[in-house]
Amino acid sequence: MADDLLRLEGVAKSYGSGIVETEVLHGIDLDLRQGEFAALIGPSGSGKSTLLNLIGLLDQPSAGKLFIQGQDTALLNEAALTRLRGLSIGFVFQHHYLIAEFTALENVMMPLLVARGRPDEDMRRRAAELLDKVGLSKWADNRVTNISGGQQQRVAIARALAMNPPLVLADEPTGNLDTKSADGVFELMRQVNVANRTTFLIVTHDPRLAQRCDRIIELVDGKIVADSRSG
Amino acid sequence: MRGELQRMPGVTTVSPMTSGPAFAVRGDANKSITLVGVEPEEYVKIVALNEKIVAGTLRITASDAVIGTELAKDLGAAVGDKFRVTTASEGSDTLNISGIFDLGNKGVNQRNVYVNLRTAQTLLDLVGGVSSMDVTVTDIFQAERIAQQITAETGLVADSWIKTNAQFFTALAAQSFSNTVIRIFVGLSAAFGIASVLVVSVVQKSKEIGILRAMGTSRAQIMRVFLIQGGLVGLTGSFIGSALGGGFLAGWGLVARNADGTQLFAIEMDYRLFLWAAAVATLVGILAAVFPARRASRLDPVVAIRG
Fold it and tell me: CB B216 to CB A114 under 8 A?
């Protein structure tokens, strides 16, 4: 399909080698289209995080093919994978992983800084815009250790959006938050999805949140057992 | 001959000297002395006689001479007094004492009388002749090579301080060798120190490194961060070390003085040494950072973020 952002064909991942080799993902076929808002659910140990790492180009599949925007990622070397990851994929983790020594604004600037090397006014403006979008303008110059957990996760989302990536991968983004903050963070991702047609793939344990996504992909024992679109 | 020496590479000063035995007579006192005829302007570049004058001034002319403290005592003379010099070749002259020196050696203070080169030549009946020439060189450890060159080119007997003080030179060479060894080990231990600090910081920062890698930071960028950090640690260390070292040396120079107020030994502080130290320390820091930096750049982001 032409508008496929992401396509997996028979992707498998195994760890170890020889007799102790264990396959955690078996022959995964999956398509994600531009603008989709999908939840990835499944019990612990079903391979959700492994799948997310493969899609995020943090890890390589043992078998099968992974295409991002039509590009076969098996043909890319380490440096090219890193570049593609920086440009095309934003990450939000369960823990925010903001860098404690910097302010909220500087953390949001970080991916731009990595890509362009030197800070400039344009970066600052872009980061301020993003913080405004996640409702944290007031906290821009605060050290990230001085804001609440929900606010930290919002900063992390702003950071994931800094390069305006077509795909955002979120691994339990609300796992550490209370219900109210979790709702806020979820709503924020939804807004970005609607406004920018950014594709989201969200790993979650929370069935309530999963129900609010357009698509639910269920993974059990390294296999996709259900894939349903709503609405 | 003198011009020839002066033109040799590495030679800084040439001071001709005529010396010979004589008697100093004043009233009833009659003392055996060594008459040393010099050109004062050149001679002070080799022996800082001007700094050793304890009374009067260093003025060596046709009629003025400087004598040692012991001889002054023996002759019962003070600055401004006159004395008579006679030699075996029947030369004789009356000289005015313009200054009294203390070279810190009783024998020298008792015997040496510094007079003008021409005066000495006349008194010793050696008109136009010199008995020796003192030569200074830029690099003191090249002295022996230059001495050999002088002998080869002029046929004169040239002795370097290295030859005339062979034992002293051996001791000095051993000392500078052990100095080098100490420096190498200090450099090595500093390198290991920096490396271990950086390894710890790689471990502590592995989550941040992982997240930066996830954001698209290349291995080369991660590596550069740690190499720069190593270099900065080395550079900062060299600044602190130079400040401490310079401070201690200055303090030592104030405290360690001879009884006459001159420095116990000359301490030379060359700013180039500090620049060298900074450059070498930065380089050592960067080299020490290579291992930790490689480690950081090869961190698996998945493991780093999860761990």
Answer: yes
B45: enclosing H helix or E strand: helix B40-46
Cα A103 from Cα A127, distance rounded (Å): 11
Instruction: List, for residues A198-227, the tens digit of each pLDDT value.
Output: 999 999 988 888 999 999 999 999 899 999
Does the interface ipTM go beyond 0.95? no
Task: Flag whether A22 is in a domain.
Answer: no
Look up the domain containing A188 and give its range. Answer: 35-58+77-229
Min distance B281 CA to chain A CA atoms (Å): 27
* Residue A48, domain member (yes or no): yes
What is the band of B307 on the pLDDT scale with cuts at 50, 70, 90?
low
Contact: A93, B218; criterion CB under 8 Å: no
Min Cα distance A227 → chain B (Å) is: 26
**Which residue type, as a one-letter code, is found at position B243?**
A
- Residue A182 sits in a domain of what CATH number? 3.40.50.300
Helices (H), chain A: 48-55, 78-88, 104-116, 121-133, 149-160, 179-196, 207-211
The pLDDT tens digits for B202-226 are 999 898 899 999 888 999 999 999 9
Beta carbons of B211 and A163 less than 8 Å apart: no
Q: Which of B201, B204, B207, B211 to mutate to test the interface with A (most CBs of A within 10 A)?
A: B211
Q: What is the reported pTM?
A: 0.67
Q: Domain limits of chain B?
A: 13-138, 167-306
The alpha carbon of residue A178 is apart from the nearest alpha carbon of chain B, in Å, by 22
Query: Whose CA is closest to A159, among A95, A109, A230?
Result: A109
